[in-house]
Design brief:
The complex is a heterodimer of chains A (114) and B (114). Chain A is mainly beta and 114 residues long. Chain A is 0% helix and 54% strand. With 114 residues, chain B is mainly β. In chain B, strands 2, 4, 5, 6, 9, 10 and 11 form a seven-stranded mixed β-sheet that branches. In chain B, strands 1-3-8-7 form a four-stranded antiparallel β-sheet, with no helix packed on it. Classes of the chains: A mainly beta (114), B mainly beta (114).
C-alpha cells in the first residue's frame, strides 16, 4: 500500500462546477501538506500548502487538512477550463525542513469543459 | 527567465546505451532533486543534493548516478538503459530552512528507451 493514495480519475466537470480532490495518507509524521498543479507536458508547480490541520483559502481554491482522519482535500470553486490539469497532493514530514523528501500522490487528471 | 532548466527535453535511445540529463537552476537554491514520473503520472523522488552533498538516495538501481558539480547544477547519468527506464525525469530545486518544502520543477526530460 502506498503512503499517499489519490484517485487518478480522470475527472470531467462542466465550467462553473465545484471540484473536490482528495488524498488519504498513512504516515502520521506528515506535517506539511501541499497541492501541486501540473499542466500537460510541464513540470508541477505549487498551488497551495497547509501546515497541520485546518483550512486555507486562496481565491477560488480551498485546501483542507484533517489529520485525525489522515485526509486532505482541495476544493476549486467556479472551475474554469484553464483549471484543466493534473493535481498532485504532496506531503512532507521530518519537521518540514527542505531536506525531507516530498511524498506525492498519484495525481488526479481534471478536465473542465466549457 | 528560466528558473529550472533541463537538457535535453526529449531523449530517444536504444536499450543498453548510456545517457546523461543535465539540470541547472538560477534561483540561488541550495537543494536540488531528481524525480521520475511514470506513465501513470506517479512522481517519485530518486535523489536529492544539498550544497553538493547527497542527502536523499532512494532505492534506485545503481545504473543511475547523480552528480552535482556545484549548487546550481545537478546531472543524472544512466548506464545500460532498460525499457523500464522510459519515463519523464524532472529536476527540482528548493531553498533549505524554509518551513515548507516548496520545490520548483523544471520542464522535464522525456526519455524513451527502444
Amino acid at each position: 500500500q502506498k503512503e499517499v493514495e489519490q484517485d487518478p480519475g480522470p475527472l470531467s466537470v462542466p465550467e462553473g462546477a465545484i471540484v473536490s480532490l482528495n488524498c488519504t495518507y498513512s504516515n502520521s509524521a506528515f506535517q506539511y501538506f501541499m497541492w501541486y498543479r501540473q499542466y500537460s507536458r510541464k513540470g508541477p508547480e505549487l498551488l497551495m500548502y497547509t501546515y497541520s490541520s485546518g483550512n486555507k483559502e486562496d481565491g477560488r481554491f480551498t485546501a483542507q487538512v484533517d489529520k485525525s482522519s489522515k485526509y486532505i482535500s482541495l476544493f476549486i470553486r467556479d472551475s474554469q477550463p484553464s483549471d484543466s490539469a493534473t493535481y498532485l497532493c504532496a506531503m512532507n514530514g521530518a519537521g518540514g525542513t527542505s531536506y525531507g523528501k516530498l511524498t506525492f500522490g498519484q495525481g488526479t487528471i481534471l478536465t473542465v469543459h466549457p | 527567465d528560466t528558473a529550472v532548466s533541463q537538457t535535453p527535453k526529449y531523449l530517444v535511445t536504444q536499450m543498453g546505451n548510456d545517457k546523461s540529463i543535465k539540470c541547472e537552476q538560477n534561483l540561488g537554491h541550495d537543494t536540488m532533486y531528481w524525480y521520475k514520473q511514470d506513465s501513470k503520472k506517479f512522481l517519485k523522488i530518486m535523489f536529492s543534493y544539498n550544497n553538493k552533498e547527497l542527502i536523499i538516495n532512494e532505492t534506485v538501481p545503481n545504473r543511475f548516478s547523480p552528480k552535482s558539480p556545484d549548487k546550481a547544477h545537478l546531472n543524472l547519468h544512466i548506464n545500460s538503459l532498460e525499457l523500464g527506464d522510459s519515463a519523464v525525469y524532472f529536476c527540482a530545486s528548493s531553498q533549505g530552512g524554509r518551513p515548507y518544502n516548496e520545490q520548483f520543477f523544471g520542464p522535464g526530460t522525456r526519455l524513451t528507451v527502444l
